[in-house]
Amino acid sequence: MKSRLRRAGELPFVSRASYWLPDLVLESAWLEHAPFAFWLTAALRPRSVVELGVHRGFSYFAFCQAVRRLRLDTRCFAIDHWVGDAHAGFYGADVYRDVCRHNRRYAGFSRLIRTDFTDAGSMFADGAIDLLHIDGCHTYEAVRRDFENWLPKMSERGVVLLHDTAEYRNDFGVYLLWDELRERYPHFEFAHGHGLGIVGIGADLPQSVRGLFATSADAAAAHAIRTSYQHLAALSAACRPVTCQHSRCRPGASKLSWRATRRAARGA
Question: Which 8-state DSSP code applies to residue 250?
């Protein structure tokens, strides 16, 4: 691992997909994780993506963007009641209307499911989900319930994302569940962007994803990966969020920005 990291110009677990810019930029605490979402989608090539807790949809549509750009045969499902909660705040029907409008560009493979997380579980067969993003209510009891209820739905290639693993204020409790899961599953964590934890549930994960988890035991390798994505996160966050509008980034900006973002990720 260390010998690979020493190669000039090499970025561990960073691909061309990591340098894409989001097509749709919305106000979101998840904004800094779009580069990793793009990499993970390309590495895992999931057959199904499920997000619990969608709000305005930034993270969900980042996954959808990657699915479409990679031309994957993937089905995506966004699950929320779209009324808000104590952590995200409560909001009106306009948020759901905006999500519906944004979803039209991905209507061929994306479905919005407006219901409770528990009720939605009955719509999925056991072992059917390759990528699950849990970002609903953030109390320990709620996030643990979501994880345990959806665990049987995960496939042999299953990966679970948990947002806000680095939030310790008020009654946020994702970090407590994360401390438990990291003892049981292969894992990796980013501390920036409020924290993002990744756990490998399945026994048949792609080699690149297994390699990412293996770096958790190598402090130098893990630091290199986190530093690269922190630089990329700054670029993603520089795309100013807009409310109920498409990204202000010009069409094709992702392609044009390849050299600039690559230099930024190296800290140049």
Answer: P
Structural domains for the chain: 23-265 (3.40.50.150)
User: How far is residue 47's CA from residue 45's CA, in Å, rounded to a whole number?
Assistant: 7
The pLDDT tens digits of the residues spanning 50-85 come to: 999 998 999 999 999 999 999 999 999 999 988 866
Decide: residue 69, CB within 10 A, 0-12 exposed, 13-18 middle, 19+ buried: middle
User: For 110-141, what is each residue's pLDDT tens digit?
Assistant: 999 999 999 999 999 999 999 999 998 889 99
Q: What ranges make up the beta strands (E) of the chain?
A: 48-52, 75-80, 84-85, 89-90, 110-114, 129-134, 154-163, 187-190, 196-200
Structure tokens at 167: 């939030």
Cβ-based neighbour number of residue 185 at 10 Å: 16
Quote the tokens at residue 106.
């991905």
Contacts of 80 (CB under 8 A, 6+ apart): 52, 53, 54, 55, 113, 114, 136
Instruction: Give the separation between CA 37 and CA 75, rounded to whole angstroms.
Output: 16
Report the distance separating Cα 199 and Cα 197, nearest Å.
Answer: 7
- Can you tell me the distance from the alpha carbon of 100 to that of 57, in angstroms, rounded to the nearest whole number? 10
Dihedral in degrees, nearest 10, Cα atoms 153, 33, 179, 221: 110
Q: Phi-psi category of 133—alpha, beta or left, where left has phi over 0 and alpha has psi -120 to 50?
A: beta
Residue of 221, 261, 208, 242 lying closest to 35 (CA atoms) = 261
